[in-house]
C-alpha cells in the first residue's frame, strides 16, 4: 500500500513539474514577443510631432540638418556613418535614423530627434552579428590553410 502512495506522489509531482515547465516556456515566449514589440513600438518621444501633418513634409519640420544629426550620433557611438535617413518614426515624430559602423566593430542604429538634436534611442544592429559569423567561418578556413603551411614548415625544418 505504501508503494502505491509513493508512486502516486511521484506521478503527481511529474504532472506538476511538466505543467510548470510548459507554463514557464509559454511565459518566456510571450515576454520575448513583448521585447520585440517594444522595438517596433518605439516608445521614445521626440520634439517635433507629425500629428495632423503630411508625412512628406518631414524635411520642412526638421530643425537640425543631417550633418548636425550625424555629429550627435557619432558622439554617442564613435565610428563611421553608413546611412542617414530623415523620417517620420512609427510613433509620429520627425527623426534621423542613423546607421553607424562602430569603432567597437559592431553595427549601431542611433535615432536622433530632428527638432532638438537629442539622441532618442540607440540599438545594436542584428545584421552585423551575421556578418561577424560569416567572418568567423572565413577565419576557420584560413586556419586550415595556416595549418597546411605549418605542416610544410615542419617538413622543411
Q: What would you note in describing this structure?
A:
- This protein is α+β, with helices and mostly antiparallel strands.
- It folds into 2 domains: 1-41; 48-124, Nuclear Transport Factor 2, Chain: A (Roll), CATH 3.10.450.
- It has helices at 2-41, 58-61, 66-76, 126-156, and strands at residues 79-88, 94-102, 107-113, 119-124.
- The chain has a 4-stranded antiparallel beta sheet with strand order 1-2-3-4, with helices on both faces.
- A hairpin with a 4-residue loop joins strand 2 (94-102) and strand 3 (107-113).
- The radius of gyration is 27 Å and the shape is elongated.
- The termini are far apart.
Keywords:
157 residues; alpha+beta; Nuclear Transport Factor 2, Chain: A; 2 domains; 4-stranded antiparallel beta sheet; 20% strand; elongated; disordered C terminus; signal
Task: Give the SSE layout.
Elements: H1 2-41, H2 58-61, H3 66-76, E1 79-88, E2 94-102, E3 107-113, E4 119-124, H4 126-156
Antiparallel strand pairs: 1-2, 2-3, 3-4
Amino acid at each position: 500500500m505504501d508503494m502505491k502512495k509513493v508512486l502516486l506522489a511521484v506521478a503527481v509531482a511529474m504532472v506538476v513539474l511538466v505543467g510548470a515547465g510548459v507554463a514557464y516556456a509559454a511565459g518566456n515566449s510571450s515576454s520575448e514577443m513583448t521585447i520585440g514589440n517594444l522595438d517596433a513600438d518605439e516608445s521614445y518621444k521626440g520634439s517635433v510631432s507629425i500629428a495632423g501633418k503630411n508625412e512628406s513634409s518631414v524635411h520642412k519640420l526638421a530643425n537640425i540638418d543631417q550633418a548636425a544629426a550625424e555629429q550627435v550620433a557619432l558622439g554617442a557611438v564613435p565610428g563611421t556613418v553608413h546611412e542617414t535617413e530623415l523620417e517620420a518614426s512609427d510613433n509620429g515624430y520627425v527623426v534621423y535614423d542613423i546607421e553607424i559602423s562602430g569603432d567597437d566593430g559592431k553595427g549601431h542604429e542611433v535615432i536622433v530627434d530632428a527638432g532638438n538634436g537629442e539622441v532618442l534611442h540607440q540599438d545594436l544592429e542584428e545584421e552585423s552579428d551575421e556578418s561577424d559569423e560569416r567572418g568567423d567561418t572565413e577565419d576557420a578556413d584560413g586556419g586550415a590553410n595556416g595549418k597546411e603551411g605549418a605542416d610544410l614548415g615542419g617538413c622543411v625544418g
